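Database export, one record per block. Field names are fixed; values are copied verbatim from the stored entry.
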Amino acid sequence: MRIEDSLQLAAGSFNDRQTLIAHRDANVKDGVREPLDADRQTTPKDAAKMLKPVAVYFWRKIDQPGHDTCRLFKLARGWRLTGAAIFLDNGRPCHLEYSVTTNGAWKTRSAKVSGYIGRKALDVRIAAAGPARWTQNGVLSKSVTGCIDVDLGFTPATNLIVLRRLALKVGQRTEAPAAYLPFPELRLVKLPQSYLRTGRSEYEYEAPTVGYAGTLRVLPGGAVSQYPGLFELVVSR
């Protein structure tokens, strides 16, 4: 079997599992699970509607062998991205499963990353601890105070969230510092970054502290289709 086929099969099985997680978490508000009303009945038709993603994306990595796939779910009071990044890093097989939950205004409330880098297992949990304050694995990360968005550094998926939240018009520019989870360190740091919308599907993006600047091409739904030097979209549905 080709490595591309095995990567796609692995990502597919992960997404099947994440469908069940999205259904289970459909009653989450601001990162806190609410009990279901005792008198509320969920019909099979309702359950099927809740399980259906509103979008599916599959990217190819450009800088090294690998792929990334995610699905976007509409929850009762927000949105959830669930996905998996599978790639090689300096010869180490990496499998990172991720999930990011936002409120209805696309403000991130929590994020989770689990999987492995080579032989090392990992489990990272990020949660909002008040307005623009964040904890990582239960410990307050003071260095990222003031950041509204969480940016997972190994995937293009989280760009969708900030672009949907900002909703820039053509010609508008804004600073959008993020609580950034760099790879492979996986410890939150503040990432200064800016977006300038130059067209219907183009944004000039800059992140000076990591030495990146480029023109992002974006689908109408906010997903990045071309991330110069890093990712390109293969399939979206």
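Remark 1: The chain has a mean pLDDT of 87.
Remark 2: The chain has one domain: 3-31+43-236.
End of record.
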